[in-house]
Amino acid sequence: MKKLALLLLLCALPASARVLLSQKQALALAFPGLAVERRTAYLNPEQVKRAREAGRVKVESRVWTYYVGISSKGVEGYAYFDTHLVRTMPETFMAVVEPGGRLRFVELLAFLEPDDYLPGPRWLGLFGGRRLDADLMVRRGIRNITGSSLTSQALTDGVRRVLAVHAVLHGAEKVK
Predict the structure, then answer these.
(1) End-to-end CA distance of the chain
(2) Cα–Cα distance for residue pair 81/79, rounded to 1 Å
(3) What's the pLDDT tens digit per position in 84-96?
(4) What percent of the chain has pLDDT over 70?
(5) Count of domains in the chain?
(6) Of 59, 107, 134, 162, which alpha carbon lies 20 to 30 A from 93's?
(7) Residue 64 counted as domain residue
(8) Predicted local confidence at residue 139, as pLDDT
(9) Any residues with CB less than 8 A from the CB of 59 and at least 6 apart, and which?
């Protein structure tokens, strides 16, 4: 009986881990009405080092899959997906980068930490229009989320990593 009561209690608790958008939905949001091309880049050790130095973050993977939005005018933007640990659970986000290296927007796809630490759309909006520079850091150009410092730091580091890899692959503006 106690086991049944415990099981019912656990089932009644709200689930905090959630997928917010699928990859397909995210790409449709990033490139509405455009052709989307999947590309894979294999970074050599020198490129990894350059990305690590430019972003001042860990760049552990040498293989990067990204998506290019293409219109009749040419490349409209790039979408990168990054998955990393926040505290003990992963989060996945998409960063959409304009051809010149400026962030168009950041969208959270999956967040498996408790909902209390989930960043809201207004906070994610702080990344829009930013470049990889010294202000793209928590407590500089990006506000910390009170009570969610690890989320703030992990997501900001992820955005810096994406922009650094983009700069290495596509020659976008470097950190000043």
Answers:
(1) 64
(2) 7
(3) 999 999 999 999 9
(4) 88
(5) 1
(6) 134
(7) yes
(8) 93
(9) 43, 48, 51, 52, 161, 164, 165
Long-range contacts of 133-138 (CB under 8 A, 24+ apart): 133/175, 133/176, 134/175, 134/176, 136/160, 136/163
Q: By residue range, what is the domain housing residue 150?
A: 15-170
Decide: helix, strand or coil at residue 151: helix
pLDDT value of residue 175: 47
Which pairs from 8-15 meet CB under 8 Å and 24+ separation? 14/115
With residue 159 as reference, give the H or E element that holds it. helix 149-170
Cα-based torsion angle of the residue sequence 29, 30, 33, 38 in order, rounded to the nearest 10 degrees: -120
C-beta of residue 101 within 8 angstroms of C-beta of residue 170: yes
Question: Do 96 and 78 touch, CB atoms closer than 8 A?
Answer: yes
| Separation of CA 37 from chain center | 19
- Domain assignment of residue 71, yes or no: yes
Whether residue 9 lies inside any domain: the answer is no
For the record, the structure tokens of 116 come out as 């209390």
Predicted pLDDT at 169: 96
In a domain, 129, yes or no: yes
| Residues whose CB is less than 8 angstroms from the CB of residue 142 and which lie 6 or more positions away in sequence, other chains included | 126, 127, 135, 136, 152, 156
Beta-carbon contacts of 126 under 8 Å, excluding residues fewer than 6 positions away, are 141, 142, 143
